[in-house]
Write a structure and sequence with these properties.
The N terminus is likely disordered. Helices cover 7% and strands 38% of the residues. It has one helix and eight strands.
Length: 136
Amino acid sequence: MISEKSSNQISMSVDDIIGYINIKSINLTSNLMQGLDNTFYLSHDYLRGYSENGEFFLDFEGDLENNNNPIIYSRKENININYLRINDLIEIGYLKNTYCYKINSIKDNIKNNKYDLLIKVYGDNNKNILCKRINC
């Protein structure tokens, strides 16, 4: 989890940071961004500078509080998808709340699949991580 001090310092300089994403099973903690579109943070870091890896970001129309099937985007360089497993837990700090999800499946195609959170990972072989919301 991002420390409160560093999170507050970053938040003061960048309005697009809305929280964090934490996947303990692969030792991943990262900022969670939300921009004005769904392309900017694929190639920019949290300080809005160019980055080949980009950042994790919530769909520009997304909202975790209302749980309307939100989508988080990332590049494969940010998440080692080969080490993720079904039932791994994902914790997302969003605004002033914490939301927890369990990975249900990792698929190439999401057609006709239900999910409470979708993480779209872009790379050589795009993958979709479908998650179910659970109590933290």
